[in-house]
């Protein structure tokens, strides 16, 4: 997979949805000591998703090559899946249901040690640590030659979810922010599991579980701002002079960067300030006002921040980068900083770039040491992904990612075509509908909601045909009717089923997160029902897919060193677009039918060319 920021100027989406049997989730209930009353008072959190790549996922002969974990949270349910792009992983999907608890958005964190994979989970009432074997400990051979292997989730049924060393109630400490929607978790160098949650007063509570193999006690510390001036200000100065009417300093977004024997906790807060804490020294070591980087901030100054997001990216050669999204009504702004050190225990931010965007709803963004990748969902229900190099992009021009569009809502059927055949062909074209959407539509259409369909692609096609034809036959009351009437009924029933499939395909395609493999630069788009990969476009694809206004401004030197060749290529692309606009539905159907029947596409192209010349105006 090519790295972002190389010569490719655009990417396109490649669906990773499975075509065969739907994924089989093994279900487990995680019993909680949390009370149902407390859970009932908790806010409903939005769905979230995330992923984890093994450190050696980019190494050719590693057992974890091209192997990763991704997850989705919804209310009290966490779905975990381990994927491999090379082999079939057995028992690789589990669904955990947390009784009387709601999982915090983004409240899942995965770490690997030499022997284990640790999954840390934060709910509104509890924290959990799942200890699973590392793939390298399950499979010791140097070279992987099998076509299938056991997943790390194979023996998850043996995990004791009630073991005190891997599960704790969040103590009812005064000051822990109610209904907080952010958290952070990490493993210390000594093997402790640490969970950070925002306090209502702007500090951070850190709950620590002892190492899984060493007896110890659970502890909670509160990190507070510790400068003398701040203590004095909050001690005796009247509220009006302190200016406490402004937004609070409660954290909206948390992130952690581990260094040797310390962890830096970054908090982006409602008062638009970024605070950095040293866990070892238990003190705030930096405060930076993000509004200093916003051109017009007068209105924002006195309102609480909502929608601000924080991401970190570490490069061994360049150090730590911080990406910050500052949300404001009808406009958004990304700021990228590098962490610098002033003196012992004092840090600063070096501002690298500010990038502006007009999109309204940012779902997620990812940061690398060169690029920002951003995921939006617009008012028309469209998924938008773009990326930009934040250092060498003076024009502020975002690069496009061409996202797969939803299937066409209407299928045009000619008089000489069989409606059933045309609908089946459109439903089962590879990559158009995922198996889960077709199965869900089938359950609803046949009113068999209790039946769990476990069908292969070919079995599903037979089942769909049978279901629609049965519904059609059941609606026919007359013994005799014309062929035209029957054809009309066929269209009606197949169209109804097709509309149901589109509805579920749209629901499953809802975007939840971006996930970047920092070891290979492979980018995934995590959706409600499946994942897809963002793949670099070739030069011709890039030029062909660009909107007209972007093609006009395309830099010719990026196409070829020879200006004449570059102009010829652009001219060719314009010709291809003209042909695309001129080709009618019937012409497309002719070419499709020729390919489907293994006839010569050249002869069909000649016929289409003759028709184009005939109707040319």
End-to-end C-alpha gap: 45 Å
Alpha carbon gyration radius: 28 Å
Secondary structure tally: strands? 31
Global structural class: alpha+beta
Given the structure, what is the number of helices?
14
Shape, per Cα inertia axes: globular
Task: State the low-pLDDT regions, or none.
Answer: 1-7, 35-42, 227-245
**Biggest pleated-sheet summary:** 8 strands, mixed
Q: Level of helix content?
A: 10-25%
User: What percent of residues are in strands?
Assistant: 25-35%
Strand order of the largest sheet: 25-26-27-28-1-31-30-29
Q: How would you describe this structure in keywords?
A:
24% helix; disordered N terminus; 14 helices; 31 strands; 5-stranded mixed β-sheet; alpha+beta; 617 residues
List the topology elements:
Blueprint (H helix, E strand, L loop, with lengths): L10 E5 L10 E5 L5 H5 L7 E6 L13 E8 L2 E8 L3 E3 L2 E6 L4 E10 L3 E8 L2 E8 L1 H4 L9 E3 L16 E3 L14 E4 L5 E6 L5 E6 L9 E5 L4 H9 L2 H4 L8 E9 L2 E8 L3 E6 L4 E7 L8 H4 L7 E7 L3 E10 L2 E13 L2 E12 L4 E6 L3 E7 L5 E7 L9 E4 L16 H9 L7 H11 L11 H19 L7 H26 L2 E6 L6 E5 L3 E6 L2 H7 L2 H5 L10 H20 L2 H12 L4 H15 L2
Describe this structure in words.
- It contains 14 helices and 31 strands.
- Among the domains are: 419-507; 539-615, no CATH class.
- Mean pLDDT is 84; it is low at 1-7, 35-42 and 227-245.
- A hairpin with a 5-residue loop joins strand 13 (184-187) and strand 14.
- The longest helix has 26 residues, at 483-508.
- It is globular and about 80 Å long.
- It has an eight-stranded mixed sheet, with no helix packed on it. It has a five-stranded mixed sheet with strand order 2-7-5-4-3, with no helix packed on it. It has a four-stranded antiparallel sheet with strand order 8-9-10-12.
- The chain has 617 residues and is α+β, with helices and mostly antiparallel strands.
């Amino acid at each position: 997979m090519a790295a972002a920021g190389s010569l490719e100027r655009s990417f396109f989406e490649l669906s990773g949805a499975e075509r065969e049997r739907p994924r089989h989730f093994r279900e487990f209930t995680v019993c909680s000591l949390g009370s149902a009353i407390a859970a009932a008072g908790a806010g409903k959190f939005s769905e979230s998703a995330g992923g984890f790549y093994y450190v050696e996922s980019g190494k050719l002969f590693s057992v974890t090559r091209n192997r990763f974990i991704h997850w989705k949270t919804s209310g009290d349910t966490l779905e975990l899946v381990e994927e491999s792009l090379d082999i079939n992983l057995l028992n690789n999907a589990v669904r955990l249901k947390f009784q009387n608890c709601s999982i915090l958005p983004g409240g899942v964190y995965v770490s690997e040690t030499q022997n284990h994979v640790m999954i840390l989970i934060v709910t509104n009432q509890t924290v959990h640590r799942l200890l699973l074997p590392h793939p390298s400990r399950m499979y010791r051979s140097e070279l992987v030659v099998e076509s299938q292997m056991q997943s790390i989730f194979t023996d998850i049924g043996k995990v004791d979810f009630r073991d005190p060393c891997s599960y704790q109630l969040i103590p009812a400490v005064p000051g822990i922010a109610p209904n907080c929607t952010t958290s952070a978790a990490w493993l210390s160098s000594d093997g402790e599991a640490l969970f950070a949650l925002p306090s209502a007063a702007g500090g951070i509570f850190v709950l620590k579980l002892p190492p899984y193999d060493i007896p110890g006690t659970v502890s909670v510390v509160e990190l507070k701002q510790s400068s003398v001036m701040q203590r004095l200000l909050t001690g005796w100065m009247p509220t009006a002079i302190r200016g406490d009417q402004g937004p609070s300093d409660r954290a909206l977004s948390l992130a952690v960067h581990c260094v040797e024997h310390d962890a830096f906790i970054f908090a982006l807060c409602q008062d638009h300030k970024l605070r950095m804490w040293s866990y070892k020294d238990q003190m705030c070591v930096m405060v930076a006002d993000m509004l200093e980087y916003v051109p017009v901030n007068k209105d924002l100054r006195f309102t609480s921040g909502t929608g601000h997001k924080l991401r970190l990216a570490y490069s061994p050669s360049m150090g730590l980068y911080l990406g910050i999204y500052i949300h404001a009504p009808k406009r958004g702004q990304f700021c990228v900083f590098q962490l610098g050190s002033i003196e012992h225990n004092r840090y600063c931010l070096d501002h690298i770039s500010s990038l502006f965007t007009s999109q309204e709803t940012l779902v997620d963004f990812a940061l690398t040491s060169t690029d920002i990748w951003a995921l939006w969902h617009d008012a028309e229900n469209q998924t938008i992904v773009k990326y930009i190099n934040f250092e060498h992009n003076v024009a502020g021009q975002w690069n496009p990612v061409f996202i797969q569009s939803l299937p066409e809502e209407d299928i045009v059927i000619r008089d000489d075509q069989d409606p059933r055949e045309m609908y089946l062909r459109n439903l089962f074209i590879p990559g158009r509908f995922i198996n889960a959407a077709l199965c869900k539509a089938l359950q609803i259409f046949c009113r068999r909601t209790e039946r769990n369909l476990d069908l292969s692609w070919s079995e599903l096609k037979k089942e769909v045909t049978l279901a629609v034809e049965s519904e059609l036959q059941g609606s026919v009351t007359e013994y005799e009717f014309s062929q035209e009437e029957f054809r009309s009924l066929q269209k009606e029933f197949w169209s109804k089923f097709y509309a149901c499939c589109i509805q579920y395909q749209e629901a499953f395609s809802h975007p939840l997160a971006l996930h970047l493999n920092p070891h290979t630069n492979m980018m995934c788009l995590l959706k409600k029902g499946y994942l897809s990969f963002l793949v670099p476009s070739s030069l011709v694809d890039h030029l062909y897919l660009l909107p007209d206004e972007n093609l006009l401004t395309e830099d010719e030197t990026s196409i070829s060193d020879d200006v004449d060749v570059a102009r010829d290529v652009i001219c060719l692309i314009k010709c291809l677009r003209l042909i695309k606009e001129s080709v009618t539905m019937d012409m497309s159907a002719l070419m499709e039918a020729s390919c489907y029947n293994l006839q010569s596409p050249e002869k069909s192209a000649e016929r289409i060319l003759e028709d184009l010349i005939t109707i040319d105006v």
